[in-house]
Structures are given as C-alpha cells and as structure tokens.
Amino acid sequence: MEDETLATTDFKLSSDEFYSPQPEGYVIGKTKYVVIIGSVISGIGKGTISSTLCKLLHDRGLHVEPMKLEAYLNVDSGTLNPYRHGEVFVLDDGTETDLDLGSYERLLGKNLTGENFITSGKVYQRIIQKEREGKYLGRDVQFIPHVTGEIKLAVRSLAVKSQADVILIEIGGTVGDYENMFAIEALRELSYEEGKENVCFLNVTYILEPGSLGEQKSKAAQLGVKALMEMGVQPDILVCRSESKMRDSIKSKLSLYANLSPSRVFGAHDVGNIYSLPSVLRDEKFDEAICQVLHLQERFPKKDNSDLHEWSKRMSVDSDAPEITIGIAGKYLGASDTYMSIIKALEHCGFALKRNIFVKWIDTTVLEKEDASVEEVFHGIQGLIVPGGFGSRGVEGKILCIQYCREHNIPFLGLCYGFQLALVEFARHVCALNRAHTTEIDATTPYPVIDILPEQKKVWTKGGTMRLGGHDVHIKFGSDAERIHGANKIRRRFRHRYECNPEYIPSLENGGIVFSGFDSEKKIMQILELPGHPFFMATQFHPEFTSRPDDPDPLFLEFVRISGTDV
Ligand code: GLN
Question: Is the peptide bond before 145 cis (omega within 30 degrees of 0)?
Fold first, then answer.
C-alpha cells in the first residue's frame, strides 16, 4: 500500500518502467528550463555565462531560478578544500555550496536556498533513505530510472516551489565525465517529457588557439558536441569561449557540425570586465535566441539594452582611476577562487568609490621564519584583511600582521577566523595574557580566549555541522558598527565552531575592545571594534557573502574607503 504522506507530498509511486516522479501540483510547460553543459575543458567560465544569462532573462522580466547540479558524491561543498575547489559559499539557510551560487546571488540580487544546489551525494542520500524506508515497491533500485527520476524530481520540485518562468540548470563538470552522466541523461529525459519548446540545451565550449599554430581550431568543440549527441542531446545553442574573438569560419564550421543555424552559435571571448558581458551578449541577440527556443519571446518581448548598459557602466572603474592596495593574509594563496567572495566584495567597493582595488597576497607562513620582516611585507599595503580559515598553518604570521596593523594605525578588517585571531592578538599583547590562544589550535593554552561553542562540544561529524547560515546580529547603540550600518539589527551569514570565550569578555573590554555586535541573547560576540584606531574591526560572520555589485557591504566599504584615505 502506498504511504499516504509520500503519495500526497513528494512523489507518486508507480511500478512501471517509467518511474518519473512528479511533485504535487506540477504543471508541464509552466516552468521552462535552460540546461547548461560544458565541454572540452573545465574552468572556461561556464558559471559566468550561466549567471550572465540569469541576469539577461531577469532583465527581460522573467522570474529565473538558477540550479547547480554538482556531479561529485559529497552531499554539499562544506568538506571540500577551498584550495582545490574554490571557496565554500554559505547560503542564508546554511547550505554550504560551491562558489557559483555566489555568482548567481550577486547577479540576481537575491538569496538562494539548498534547493538551488543539488549534488550527486544529495541525490544518492535521498534514494538510499527511500530504499531503507521501503518506498520502491519491491523493485531493484537502478541508475535509470531511479537516479534520473530523483534528479528530475529535484528540478520539478524547485519549479513548483518557486513558480519560476525559467529554471536555469548548470551541470557541474564537462561532457565525458563519468560523474555527470546521469545528470545529463536525467535532463535528456526531462526534455523528452516536457516537450522540445520547454527545454533549451546550451553547450558552453572552448575554441583552442595553440600558440604554435597562431590560429583558432574548432575540432575539440566539435568533439564536445558529438559527445553530447551520443548521449541523445542536441544542443540548441552553442557558446564558444575563446581567448580572442571567434572567427567567422569557426562559427560556420561549428554551425554545420552541430546542426545549428549560425544565429544559434555565439562567441564569448575573454573580456576584462565580466559586468560588460550581459550588454555585449544582448547586442548579439543571445537571450533573444533562448527565448525563441523556449517560445517565450511573446510573453517576454525583446528589451533594449539601456538598463544593462547603464548597469555595466556603474559596475566599472576607469583603468587610470587611483589604486587602493589591500593585503589579504591567507593560507590558500595563488588561487583567487579560494577567496572569491572577498575579492568580489572588494570589487563592489571599487565600483562605489570609483577606485581600482589591487590585492596583495601575504603568505603568513613566510612571516613565521626568523629573518622575516613584517614591515617589508606591509610595504605599499593600505589596509589588511585576515579572512576566514581553519587550523594552525600560518596563524602566528596572521597574528603578527594584526599586531602590526593595530600598532601602526593600518586599517584592519578581520573575518571570522580573522575576528578570533584579532582577539588572541589583543589578549596576548594588550591584556598581557601570555600564550593566549584559540583551543582550535592549542587545547592547553592557559588563556583560551577563543573556545568551542557550547553546542559544538557534542558534535563529532564534520559535514554540515558548524554554526551555519544567516543569523541576526544586534548592534550596539552609539558604536561605529551602528554608524556604518545605519541600523541596530542586520542579518549576516556564519560558518564557525569556535567563538569568543564569554569568560574573557570583561578582560578584553577592560583592555579597550568594544564588542558592538552580538546575537539576540548577547551570548555570542559578533563584531569587535577598537576606538581610537582609524579602522580596526572584525566580524564573527562573513559580510563578503552578502555584498552585491550595486550594494556593497557597508563594513567593507568603510574599510576600503578609510584604507584609501591618508591616515
Ligand atoms: N576555524 C574557526 C571556527 O571554526 C573559524 C572559521 C572560519 O573562519 N570560517 O570557528
């Protein structure tokens, strides 16, 4: 017998071969889909093209929901090493995702949820749970139809919940990966079930231009299209990324091999400022072509380019505008993806202040060597950010940097770990609490100024168990934080296990620290400031996750502004 709750909530059971569960209330054709699949190589900006397309459709008046289908078996991105995979982006609902969700939030200007981020791990977890609950009617559970069915269910559930006009689904990885095969198959099935005018396949490919040949070659892109076709997917649109502008001969060749009119093959060569992409692609009738495939052009007629043009002008800085140099003292250096949201938040400040922001990376492990000179490292740096982090590597170097900023009136912004290490530094050097530390690193420190959050003491597993997501931050009256935010309550995103140990709050305050932000019960300290210093502030939360291109985070903005002022 069917389980009542299951039959009425998430899917209808069926014992035939075509297991294709649909959520309650789903109407075929109400929501349309754009599926974005990469080919040739990864790292060519598939996420940028996808978020640009979101922006274009949104600008046309469509309600767009992005969705990322990650191929890996991790349930979320929380346990991934940011050096290998880029930063872990945290959504307001606490989901730990990859950095593409950050691009979508920033370009669409809205908060997303865990339903916008599906991994193979999440899909398998749901299937295994259903199997254990005996919900497959005695059937053997198979990749097709059950894995594909679960993927389609996730996609359609988002359609029902959001009532979006278009869901834009970005598939992680590239064609030919074993991991994403079932996602591609699921979306091929979706296209069959929904009807051709309801699903648009977009292949983001790459045109090689080997230095030794000095000319563009389309073969790899052709093979990518072929691989997709072998999986039963005929792309409707090709976007060809390349270093230099795509030649017409390449366009005609690809159009022939891909069964596509040249008007469905778009070139997108490297541009300095990605914020110019929406208006460039609009000029090439990119969103027009997608609306044609999806039969949307009547409901959402062509829009001119003026708003986008205005927007991209605002999101730019003249190359000869004065520079502000910000140091970032991190661990995962050499890959800016690791600190993507921080770089973006700084960029947003640059747009608002019309200044070019130059980032100088500081490898703090170098500062721990005996002959190292902090002064030399700080040469040219006008403000310092100590970002979030975990573990002991480079920590003493970070503490040295914070001390240098505090003692030399250099603007300092600490984020999460940066907040905790600022308190360790202050305890050691101002409050004379020698060897003060965080228990994350030194469990036997005589002064555990940073200690594990009480509720974390009983947590033993790593995945999704930190204090995560959006929480209210109450701001102290008359503080700098209040002046900067112009509010006494803000909402920001967190990702931590440790906190300022409440036992040390009085000593730190006696030393001169002002805690100007806390949770509703005043138990967890969330912002610190140091009166008398040009700018010495730190947050237990991550303001970088909620900064937007046309609405920079106020704390970042004030930090950058003061860094650019001679103090
Ligand atoms: N390692 C610290 C903690 O877990 C800081 C975390 C972070 O910077 N995101 O509390």
Answer: yes
pLDDT at 11 over 60: no
- What is the rounded CA–CA span in Å between residue 263 and residue 278? 17
Q: Answer yes or no: is the C-beta of 417 below 6 A from any ligand 1 atom.
A: yes
- Lowest average pLDDT, out of 155-169, 297-311, 548-562, goes to 297-311
Q: Tell me how far the alpha carbon of residue 204 lies from the centroid of ligand 1, in angstroms.
A: 36
Mean pLDDT of 460-484: 96
**pLDDT value at 272 more than 90:** no
Would the CB of 498 count as within 6 Å of ligand 1?
yes
State the distance from the centre of ligand 1 to the C-alpha of 387, rounded, in angstroms: 10
Q: Which position among 416, 437, 471, 499 bears the catalytic label? A: 416
Indicate the range of 80-89, 259-268, 430-439 predicted with least confidence: 80-89
pLDDT digits (tens, 9 = 90+) for 369-384: 888 899 999 999 999 9
Catalytic annotation present for 70: no
342, 413, 419, 420: residue to mutate for ligand 1 pocket, most atoms within 8 A of CB: 420
Q: Which domains does the chain have, with CATH numbers?
A: 9-314 (3.40.50.300), 323-563 (3.40.50.880)
| 8 A C-beta contact, residue 386 and residue 425 | no
Residue 515 near residue 110, CB atoms below 8 Å: no
Residues in the chain: 567
- For the Cβ of 416 lying below 6 angstroms from any atom of ligand 1, the answer is yes
Q: For residue range 110-154, what is the model confidence (pLDDT) as tens digits? A: 999 999 999 999 999 999 999 999 988 788 999 999 999 999 999
Q: CA-to-CA distance for 76 and 219, rounded, in angstroms?
A: 35
Q: Whole-angstrom Cα distance, residue 532 to residue 539?
A: 18
Amino acid at 57: L
The pLDDT of residue 5: 33
Nearest-CA residue for ligand 1 atom 5 is 417
Answer yes or no: is the C-beta of 497 below 6 A from any ligand 1 atom. yes
Distance (angstroms) between ligand 1 centre and the Cα of 415 equals: 9
- Cα distance between residue 413 and residue 399, in whole Å: 13
Question: Which atom of ligand 1 is found nearest the CA of 389?
Answer: 8
Nearest to 157 by CA among 223, 204, 113: 113
pLDDT at residue 10, as a whole number: 46
Q: Is 388 in the pocket of ligand 1 (CB under 6 A)?
A: yes
Retrieve residue 226's tokens.
């072929």
- Yes or no: say if 540 and 524 are a contact pair by the CB < 8 Å rule: yes
Nearest CA among 2, 13, 332 for reference residue 149: 13
* Alpha-carbon radius of gyration of the chain: 26
pLDDT at 334: 65
Q: Phi, psi at residue 381, to the nearest 5°?
A: -80, 130
Q: What integer is the mean pLDDT of 546-556?
A: 97
Give the residue carrying structure tokens 């208006």.
279
With contact defined as beta carbons under 8 Å apart, do 169 and 71 qualify?
no
> Would the pTM count as exceeding 0.90?
yes
Q: Rounded to 10 degrees, what is the CA torsion of 242, 243, 249, 251?
A: 20
369, amino acid identity = K
